[in-house]
Specification:
By secondary structure, the protein is of the alpha+beta class. The chain is built from 4 helices and 3 strands. Strand 2 and strand 3 form a beta hairpin. The longest helix has 11 residues.
Length: 97
């Protein structure tokens, strides 16, 4: 699906490349969700680092950068429209094409 789309479409590969606070903030803005909503609640790192703790948005984002496995994936970004989706199911990607 992505092979036939615009060059402005990117799969955000934060597991391979890492992620910094600013990129994550920008991505959250494009997704239109909170940091906690982007967390994979069943990941052990989430359970160890986030679950049950009273953390600020900034603290959650910092933990997401430190433990990127807790971030939902895949995230697909359309840079032209400044929109992003979590690409599961794959059909969700159509929303930003």
């Amino acid at each position: 699906m992505l092979n036939e789309s615009s060059d402005d479409i990117e799969v955000f590969e934060y597991i391979k490349e890492g992620v910094d606070v600013e990129d994550l903030r920008e991505t959250l803005g494009m997704l239109g969700i909170s940091a906690d909503e982007l967390c994979r609640k069943n990941e052990q790192d989430y359970k160890d680092q986030v679950k049950g703790k009273e953390l600020s948005k900034d603290q959650i984002i910092a933990l997401m950068c430190r433990f990127p496995k807790i971030i939902e994936r895949p995230i697909v970004i359309n840079h032209e429209t400044k929109k992003a989706v979590i690409g599961r199911p794959a059909e969700k990607i159509l929303e930003i094409l």
